[in-house]
Amino acid sequence: MNDLKKLGEFGFIGNIQKQLKARSPHVLTGIGDDCAVLSPSGKKQLIVTTDALIEGVHFDLAWTSPSALGEKAIAVNVSDISAMGGEPTAALISLGIPAKLPLKFLQQFYKGIDSACKQYNIELCGGDTVASKKDLFINIVLLGQTNASRTFYRTGAQTGDLIYVTGTLGDSALGLKLLKSRRKKWNAKESDLKFLIKKHLQPTARLKESRVLALSALKITAMIDVSDGLVQDLHHICQSSKVGAVLNLQSLPRSKAFQRVSSFNKLNANELAFHGGEDYELVFTLPPQDAKKMEKLFQKSQISLIGEILPTPDSIFIKEADGKLKPVKKLQGYQHF
Ligand SMILES: [Mg+2]
Fold first, then answer.
1. In CA terms, which of 2, 19, 90, 198 is 20 to 30 Å from 71?
2. From the CA of 282, how far away is ligand 1's center (Å)?
3. Distance (Å) from CA 76 to ligand 1 centroid
4. CA 21 / ligand 1 centre spacing (Å)
5. How many angstroms from the chain centroid is the CA of residue 304?
6. Which among 66, 126, 60, 127 has a CA at the least distance from the CA of 102?
7. How far is the centre of ligand 1, averaged over its atoms, from the C-alpha of 231 (Å)?
8. Which residues, listed in sequence order, are joined to residue 53 by a DSSP beta bridge?
C-alpha cells in the first residue's frame, strides 16, 4: 500500500488545505465544500481558462522536479489570463495520480503550486484527485478578471499596427532540445545550458507586463501569448483580425545563451525562434502613434518591435537582412495531434 492510499483522498486534501493560504477577496469559500463560492467584483469581467498536462506528452518526470512541474502548471494558465489583459484570482486543480507516485512527490508538487500561486496572487479554491492507471494527469482551471474596457482579444489588429513581443524567443524550445539529448556533448557553457533548460521547465508568465498594458491608456488592438510558437500564435491574431503580418528577422529578440548555444552547435536558430513553442511571451499590436508612449512605459523590461500588420489576410512574411520579403509557408508551430 502506498502512502497516498494510507492517507486516503480526504486525508490528502486535508493536508493540502493546511498548506494553502487564502489569498483572494473574491473567494468566499474555498476548498472544503461541494463548490467554491466566489463573489464577482463590480464592473469587472470574469475570464476563465484551462490547460491539461499529460505525462509523456507535455512533461517527462525524468527531467522535471515535482515542484517545478507544479509551478509550470500554474504559470502556463497565468500566461493565458495575461494574454487577455486580466489578473488571475482563483484556481481549481484536478489530478489523476498513478500508484507509482510517492506521497513526497505530491507534497513537493503542491509546494510548487503554492509558490506559483503566491507569485501570481492566486487562491487555490478546489479541484479533484482521482487514481490514474499509468500516467500522471494534471488539469488546472484558472479564473481571472479584467476591466471590461481593457480586455484584449485576438481580433482587433489593423493594417499598419506595430507588432511587439516581450522577452526573448526560442529559449524554451532549445531547452527542450537539450533535455531530449542530454547525453550528447554540447559545445556550450554549463550556465547557458542551465538557463535554457530552466526557461523550458520553469517559465515565467508575463503578468507584470500585461498589467502595465492593461492599466495604461495605450490602444492595444490585439494580444496573444506565445505557447505554440511565434508564427503560429501571430497567425491566430491574423486569422481572427483578417489581416497579415511581416516579421523582421533582424529584430527577433534572442537571449545571449540562445545565440551562443545555437551558433556553436550549428542549430537552426530561426526555426527555433519562429516555430519553437512554450515561450509564454506576449505578442501584441498597437497603432504606430502609441509606440513612443509604450516604449516609455517599458524602459526597464525587454519589449521588442518585431514587425507590422499588413492588409493581406492570412499571410505572414519574413523580412530578411537584405530587405526582401519571404512568405512563411509553415504557419503552424507545435502540433498537438
Ligand atoms: Mg494562449
1. 2
2. 9
3. 8
4. 27
5. 18
6. 66
7. 13
8. 138
Q: Do 84 and 144 touch, CB atoms closer than 8 A? A: yes
Quote the Cα angle for 133-137-142, to 5°.
150
Cα 83 to averaged position of ligand 1 atoms, centre (Å)? 7
Give the environment of ion ligand 1: residues with CB less than 5 A.
80, 225, 227
At 91-149, the pLDDT tens digits run 999 999 999 999 999 999 999 999 999 999 999 999 999 999 999 999 999 999 999 89
Architecture of the domain defined by 162-327? Alpha-Beta Complex (3.90)
* Residue 205: strand, helix, or coil: coil
262 phi and psi angles, rounded to 5 deg: -70, -35
Helices 190-201 and 171-180 cross at an angle (nearest 10°) of 110
Residue 31: what are its φ and ψ, rounded to 5°? Answer: -65, 145
Q: Which CATH code, of 3.40.50.720, 2.40.160.20, 2.60.40.10, 3.30.1330.10, is assigned to 3-150?
A: 3.30.1330.10
* CA angle, residues 282, 206, 241, in degrees to nearest 5: 25
Over residues 315-325, the pLDDT tens digits come to 999 999 899 99
Cα-to-centroid distance, 78 and ligand 1 (Å): 10
- CA-to-CA distance for 49 and 116, rounded, in angstroms? 17
